[in-house]
Amino acid sequence: MTKLVSEQALKGLMLLSLDGDEAAYRRLLSILRDLLLTFFRKRLGSNAPPDAEDLVQEVLLAVHSRRITYDRERPFTAWFFKIAKYKLIDHFRASDRKNGVEVALLDEVAAEFREEALFAHLDVDRLLDQLPAKQRELLRQVKIAGKTTAEAATDTGQSEVMVRVSIHRGMRAIGRKLGFANDED
Q: pLDDT digits over 153-165, tens only?
């Protein structure tokens, strides 16, 4: 399983590579290869093994040839996955697999990797990073990953009541940081 890699880490490697750091570029390509294999295998189903490898190579070549066009001020993953999305759409068009997959793919990728969503994720991560570890983890489990408070309680060894209290306190703390709540609540 591919270790989760943040936008910040990928962008950092891209910026270093644009500045001539060959080791950072090799590391970036290695990580991108793993991300692409997961991305394509999930979307290709039974055709995944041979087609996924071909698509990975196409995208990595496109990234290499187009890296000069990358805007350093924008999220790297939005730029990167846009290239991957279009290569996958081209693949579906070439193989006459237009049975609705293309439309669904456009919707899925657009929602998952559009710039606004990436900035929102970064903002949420920054807010959560300001909370105590216990609250941060519980908010990630329940509010982001969609676990129930009972599941989070089991995972953390806490009571459901304590999980609910921690989540409530974390949400209030975030609300205060955003100016939506005051201490008298």
A: 998 999 999 999 9
Q: How far is CA 45 from CA 36, 49, 51, 60, 94, in A?
A: 14, 9, 10, 21, 17
Q: Are 113 and 81 in contact (CB under 8 A)?
A: yes
In sequence order, the 6+-apart residues with CB closer than 8 A to the CB of 167 are 135, 138, 139, 142, 143, 149
Long-range pairs for 100-106: beta carbons < 8 A, 24 or more residues apart: 101/43, 105/43
**Residue 71 to residues 13, 64, 79, 85, 109, Cα–Cα distance (Å):** 14, 14, 9, 18, 20
Spatial distance between the Cα atoms of 93 and 180, rounded to a whole number of angstroms: 48
For residue 179, the SS3 value is coil
Characterize 73-98 residue by residue with b for buried, 16 or more Cβ atoms within 10 angstroms of its Cβ, and e for exposed. Answer: eebbbbbbbebbbebbbebbeeeeee
CA distance 131 to 133: 6
Tokens at residue 25, please?
């570029």
> What long-range pairs does 87-93 form, CB within 8 A, spacing at least 24?
87/55, 87/58, 87/59, 87/62, 88/40, 88/43, 88/55, 91/51, 91/54, 91/55
For residue range 82-101, list pLDDT tens digits in order: 888 888 887 777 776 554 45
